[in-house]
């Protein structure tokens, strides 16, 4: 079984990656293998990345495979413009990569503003996987730019859902839910795991980054 998680930023995708692959015996998991700047603690060492493992979970962000000269130009465009996500050339690299997997999970977050606040805080703290307190006094212009990044990425997820004929899973419907809800998530995505208690623990909101 090879599973690909395609996620909008700040939607809990790193925790979902760990929850799934660490609950499947002898499974390998990799977080954003195409991202040159990443933090440790999520997924196996990136130098072990390969598509050849029989049990594999890979998580990418919705903009990771888009064709841009460098990340700074992509980031600048995403925070200052509305991206034409209906341009098939934009999402073709993602669609092509997804063919390496037999199960695909699309992940987003209903609260765009909370995702934007989380993204901005992680950027300002220069850390994407540590606990933090959010301060509403942050520059409104920065929040607006962060929100534009989230909206563009969410739009990519929505378009991928149409092309792949897949539903979108939401942060709010997964984290800190009861056993039945989590089991329904696994069933609806046709995922079989070996350790449900481990899976449930990773998705407990006690582990969330935002503390206030």
Report the average pLDDT across residues.
85
Number of helical segments with 4 or more residues: 7
Strand order of the largest sheet: 2-3-1-4-5
Please summarize the sheet with the most strands: 5 strands, parallel
Percent range of helical residues:
40-55%
The rounded distance between the terminal residues' Cα atoms is: 38 Å
Name the shape in a single word. Answer: globular
Q: What is the number of beta strands? A: 5
Unreliable stretches: none
Return the structural class: alpha/beta
Backbone CA Rg: 17 Å
Give an overview in words.
This protein is of the alpha/beta class. The chain is built from seven helices and five strands. Strands 2-3-1-4-5 form a five-stranded parallel beta sheet, sandwiched between helices. The longest helix is centred in the C-terminal third of the chain and has 25 residues, at 140-164. The radius of gyration is 17 Å and the shape is globular. The model has no long low-confidence stretch (mean pLDDT 85).
Furnish the topology, listing elements before pairings.
Blueprint: E1 2-7, H1 13-21, E2 28-31, E3 56-61, H2 71-80, H3 88-98, E4 103-108, H4 112-124, H5 140-164, E5 168-170, H6 179-188, H7 196-202
Parallel strand pairs: 1-3, 1-4, 2-3, 4-5
Helix pairs in contact: 1-7, 2-5, 4-5
Outline:
By secondary structure, the protein is an alpha/beta fold. Helix content is 40%, strand content 12%. The protein has helices at 13-21, 71-80, 88-98, 112-124, 140-164, 179-188, 196-202; strands at residues 2-7, 28-31, 56-61, 103-108, 168-170.
Q: Any descriptors?
A:
40% helix; alpha/beta; single chain; globular; five-stranded parallel sheet; 212 residues
